[in-house]
Amino acid sequence: MVRQAMKDSAYLHAAGMVVQSITGVRASVHKSKENISMWELRSGKTISVTAQVKGRSAYRFLAQLIDVVLPRIKDWKGVAGGSGDSSGNITFGMPPEAVSMFPEIEGGFSPLFPRGTRCSRVG
Q1: What is the pLDDT of residue 118?
Q2: CB under 8 Å to 10, separation ≥6 — which residues?
Q3: CATH number at residue 81
Q4: Which pLDDT value is given to residue 109?
Q5: Which of 19, 55, 106, 114 could form a disulfide linkage to 27, CB 3.0–4.6 angstroms apart?
Q6: What is the pLDDT of residues 107-118, one digit of tens each?
Q7: Global pTM?
Q8: Which residue range forms the structural domain that includes residue 26?
Q9: Does the pLDDT of residue 123 top 50, yes or no?
Q10: What is the DSSP string of the chain?
Q11: How many folded domains does the chain comprise?
Q12: Contact 108, 114 (CB under 8 A)
């Protein structure tokens, strides 16, 4: 979830561009399904983006993740054993600093975000 997107949609747009440039797949936008007052979340608000990576794009993304990004992360604890399902799908998260280590993002991360937001504020 992109927390800042609840107040300013430019953050969500930027997150979508980052996901799309890293994966090479068009990002899908998701809306909240319920109200959660503790998070100031309202039903129907656009809050996150995802990308379903398949085929050649998946192999390219995975190779880049394993060969370039993960070796650069100092405190990487790995992917939890329970993060996969019986179909071979895996789900995991990365800190914003790790996302900025992808070669597609490395040089031009900050200009994507409104008012020069640092990458550590995305997430």
Answers
A1: 46
A2: 113, 114
A3: 3.30.1440.10
A4: 52
A5: 19
A6: 665 555 555 444
A7: 0.68
A8: 3-121
A9: no
A10: --GGGGT-HHHHHHHHHHHHHHHSSPPEEEE--S-BGGGTB-TT-EEEEE----HHHHHHHHHHIIIIIGGG-TT-----GGGB-TTS-B-----HHHHTTSHHHHSSSGGGSGGG--GGG--
A11: 1
A12: no
Token pair of 42, please?
């309202």
Task: Look at 117 and 73; give whichever has higher pLDDT.
Answer: 73
Asked if pLDDT for residue 76 goes beyond 60, the answer is yes
Long-range Cβ contacts of 21-25 (<8 Å, 24+ apart): 21/102, 21/104, 21/105, 22/61, 22/99, 22/102, 22/104, 22/105, 23/51, 23/53, 23/57, 23/61, 24/53, 24/57, 24/60, 24/61, 25/51, 25/52, 25/53, 25/54, 25/57
- Gap between the Cα atoms of 101 and 98, Å rounded: 5
Average pLDDT over residues 100-110: 71
